[in-house]
Amino acid sequence: MDGPDLDRRVYLAGLAATAGMAGCSGLFSDGDESQTATPDRGDSDTAGGGSRTPFATPSGRRQHRPTAGDQVLASRDGHVVVVGRGLDGHVAIDPTETDTPVGDAFRLLDEAGGARGFGTVLLPPTTVVERAPLRPSQHARLLGWGINTTTLAFADTTRDGIRVETLRDGKFVTLDGFTLSGSASGDARESGSAIHFDNDTANPKHFDIGSLAFREWVDPVLDLENGAPFGSVWYHLDFGFGQNDGRELAIGRNEGFLGSRVLYVSAGNRTGDPVITTDYSGARFDVGFLNVGGSAGPALELRTTWNGHVSVGGINYEPGTERSGSAVFLDGPAGVRIEHVRNTDATLDSVIRFDRKNANNVIGRVDNAGTLRRGKIEITAQPAGSSFYFGSSSEFVTEFDSLAEPIWAFGDMASADGRRVAEAPAQPRTYGDPDPSDLTIGEVGIAESDGGAPSLVYRDREGSLHHWRAE
C-alpha cells in the first residue's frame, strides 16, 4: 500500500499542534513508527564531492502509519523527513550524516515509488547543508518552517543550488517556507544561481514557489536560461536589500515563462544591476508588486519581441541612490502594462524610458517623490507602434519633433509630439477646397468644390488628404 503524501495544510496543522511541545524525546521511542536512515559511509556514491548514500527499507519490520504530528516532530528534531509513494510511514534522514541530505531524500522518493518523485520532503527548523546541486523530482514538494527559521545552504560556491535540466526535474514541483543560501560557511560565492533552468528540450509545468528567501547569490539569482517553466505561481520572493550580487530574475533569450505569475518581489541587489530582465524574449508573465531598495539598478529592464506580454501591478522604487537611467527600461514591441510606478527617493533621468522599437505599452499612474533630471517618461527612440499613458502629455520628454507612431496621453488627449486627438463634431464640417492644414489629424469632413459633386475628405497621420466622391 502506498504511504501517505503530506499535504501542506496537514503539515501546517501539525506545526500548530506541536508548537508548544517542549522536552519531547529524540526521534521516536517505538522503532516501528518510522524509518531512520543512517548512511553507510563505506557504500556511498560520490557526486561532486558529496556522498549520496543508498537507502533501503528494513525488511521484516511492520511499519505503522505515522500521524502528521509524528512527521512534524521528526522534522522539528532536526531531520529531513521523506513522505511519499512506496514508503510505509516516513523516512527521517540525519543531515549531519550525509553530504546531500535533500538530494538523498529526492532520490529515495524516486526509488521507492516506482516513478520519479511523488512525495513531500520536510526540512527541519534549522540550517541544512547540501554539498552538491539539487535536482527536485517531479510531483514533489520541499517544505520548510519559514524563511526566517529554515535555511538550505549550499557549500559548493561554484555551482548552482537547484538545477532543472529535464522535464521531470521540475514538473509539478513546489518549494515553500525556507531560505536558499549561497554560502554554507561564509565563503564568498564565485558563480552559480540559486535556481537555474537549463533544459534545451522541454519546459516544465507548474514549478511553483510559496515563500522563499535568497541570500548570498551572484548574477543571476534566478536564471531562466533554457526551458523556463510555464503555468507557474510564485507567491513571495524575498531577495533582501543588499544581500545578493547581480540580477534577481533573468529570463533568457527566446524564453517565455508562459502564463506564470509572480505575486510579490522584494529586492535590491548591491551591484546596481536590474532586478528583472528579459533578453529579447517573447516573455508572457505577470508581476503583482515589485518593491525595490538596496543599491539596485532598474526595477525592470525588458527587451522583448512582438509575441511577448508583461503585466505589472505596481512598483515602488526606493533605493535612495543617484544614478543615470530610469527605474523602468522598455525596449521592444511586446505589450507591457504597468498600472502604477513610484520613484520614492532615487535621483534618476526618468521614471520610465521607452527605447528602441517600443510599442504597445500601457502605463497607468507614474508618481515621483525623488529627483528627475529630465521627466517622468522619456522617449529615446522612434516608436514601432502606439503606446498609451493615463496621464498628461506634459510628462513626456523626447528629442523628436515628430514621432513615427503616437504615444498618447489620455489626460489631455495628446501625443508626446504635440498632435492631438480630433474632437468629433456633431456633424462633419464642410469645406470648399480644403488644404491639409484645414483639418485636424483623423478628422473626416465634407468638401464642396465649385460645380462638382461633394466628397468626404479625411486627413491621415502624415497630413495627407484622402477624398471619396459620391459618384
Categorize the overall geometry. elongated
Mean pLDDT: 84
Looking at the chains present, what oligomeric state does this protein adopt?
single chain
Q: If you compute it from the alpha carbons, what radius of gyration comes out, rounded to the nearest whole angstrom? A: 29 Å
Biggest pleated-sheet summary? 19 strands, mixed
User: What are the low-pLDDT stretches, counting only 5+ consecutive residues below 50?
Assistant: 1-5, 15-64
Strands, total number = 35
- Strand content bin: 35-45%
The residue fraction in helices comes out at under 10%
Helices and strands: which structural class? mainly beta
Distance between the termini: 85 Å
Q: What is the count of DSSP helices, taking H or I runs of 4+ residues?
A: 4
Properties at a glance:
elongated, 471 residues, mainly beta, 19-stranded mixed sheet, 4 helices, single chain
What is the topological layout?
Blueprint: H1 8-18, E1 35-37, E2 45-47, E3 50-52, H2 68-76, E4 80-84, E5 91-93, H3 101-112, E6 119-122, E7 127-130, E8 140-143, E9 151-154, E10 162-164, H4 167-170, E11 173-176, E12 178-181, E13 195-198, E14 207-215, E15 222-226, E16 233-238, E17 249-251, E18 260-267, E19 276-281, E20 284-292, E21 300-304, E22 309-317, E23 326-331, E24 335-343, E25 347-354, E26 362-368, E27 371-379, E28 387-389, E29 396-398, E30 407-409, E31 414-415, E32 430-431, E33 444-447, E34 455-459, E35 465-469
Parallel strand pairs: 1-5, 6-8, 7-9, 8-11, 9-12, 10-13, 11-14, 12-14, 13-15, 14-16, 15-17, 16-18, 17-19, 18-20, 19-21, 20-22, 21-23, 22-24, 23-25, 24-26, 25-27, 26-28, 27-29, 28-30, 32-33
Antiparallel strand pairs: 2-3, 4-5, 4-6, 30-31, 33-34, 34-35
Helix pairs in contact: 1-2
